[in-house]
């Protein structure tokens, strides 16, 4: 089966879903290809700083995520090397655009928030990319099931073993 898509994004992780949502907010439809059979929510959490929250606000999920994640005002650490010496790092200092917004963000909650905002049918699961080739102005994306997608724009968000990056190299 050959299908034609204007924009194909490979990988339904944070980068792929954020890219798809950003395009959706601009009125552009994209198709996200994910090799696994469902959304992969491995990993637990990470610290997000002010600039990340500006990006999340720009795609329309910042307010929702703030409701589920408390702001951090500092960190404490203890060292057993010199007999339980503690130190504190404060985040209360103001940046040039106001107070810093620093939170520990749960990866699963972020991915689910991005997914919830995307139109149905944006993600195609069990779609492992095995190769990419060029055909005129189109890219031919070959999938493990034998199907081929033709696309004008191909965006690789498929991580360290990226098939898109291998094709570009």
Features:
alpha/beta; FAD/NAD(P)-binding domain; two-stranded antiparallel sheet; 25% helix; elongated
Describe, in plain words, how this protein is organized in 3D.
It comes from Vitis vinifera. With 169 residues, the protein is of the alpha/beta class. The chain has helices spanning 14-25, 50-58, 62-66, 107-117, 163-168; strands at residues 2-10, 31-33, 45-48, 74-79, 85-90, 94-95, 98-99, 103-106, 123-124, 129-135, 138-143, 148-156. It has one domain: FAD/NAD(P)-binding domain, CATH 3.50.50.60. It is built from 5 helices and 12 strands. Strands 9-2-1-12-11-10 form a 6-stranded mixed sheet. α1 runs parallel beside α4.
Low-confidence stretches: none
Relative helix content: 25-40%
What is the architecture at the second tier of CATH? 3-Layer(bba) Sandwich
- Give me the side-by-side strand order of the main sheet: 9-2-1-12-11-10
The sequence of SSEs as H and E is EHEEHHEEEEEHEEEEH
Mean pLDDT: 88
Indicate how many domains the architecture comprises.
Answer: 1
The counted number of beta strands is 12
Assigned CATH class: Alpha Beta
Fourth CATH level, the homologous superfamily: FAD/NAD(P)-binding domain
Dominant shape:
elongated
Q: Major beta sheet, specifics?
A: 6 strands, mixed
Protein name: FAD-binding domain-containing protein
Domain FAD-binding: 6-166
Family: Belongs to the 3-hydroxybenzoate 6-hydroxylase family.
Keywords: Monooxygenase, Oxidoreductase
């Amino acid at each position: 089966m050959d299908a034609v898509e204007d924009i194909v994004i490979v990988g339904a992780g944070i980068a792929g879903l954020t890219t798809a949502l950003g395009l959706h907010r601009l009125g552009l439809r994209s198709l996200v290809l994910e090799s696994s059979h469902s959304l992969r929510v491995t990993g637990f959490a990470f610290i997000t700083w002010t600039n990340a929250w500006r990006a999340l606000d720009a795609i329309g999920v910042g307010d929702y995520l703030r409701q589920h994640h408390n702001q951090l005002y500092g960190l404490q650490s203890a060292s057993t090397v010199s007999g339980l010496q503690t130190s504190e790092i404060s985040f209360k200092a103001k940046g040039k655009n106001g107070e810093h917004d620093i939170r520990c963000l749960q990866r699963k909650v972020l991915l689910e928030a991005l997914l919830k905002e995307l139109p149905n049918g944006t993600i195609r699961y069990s779609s492992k990319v095995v190769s990419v080739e060029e055909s005129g102005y189109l890219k031919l994306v070959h999938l493990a099931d034998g199907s081929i997608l033709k696309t004008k724009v191909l965006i690789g968000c498929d991580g360290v073993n990226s098939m898109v990056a291998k094709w570009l190299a």
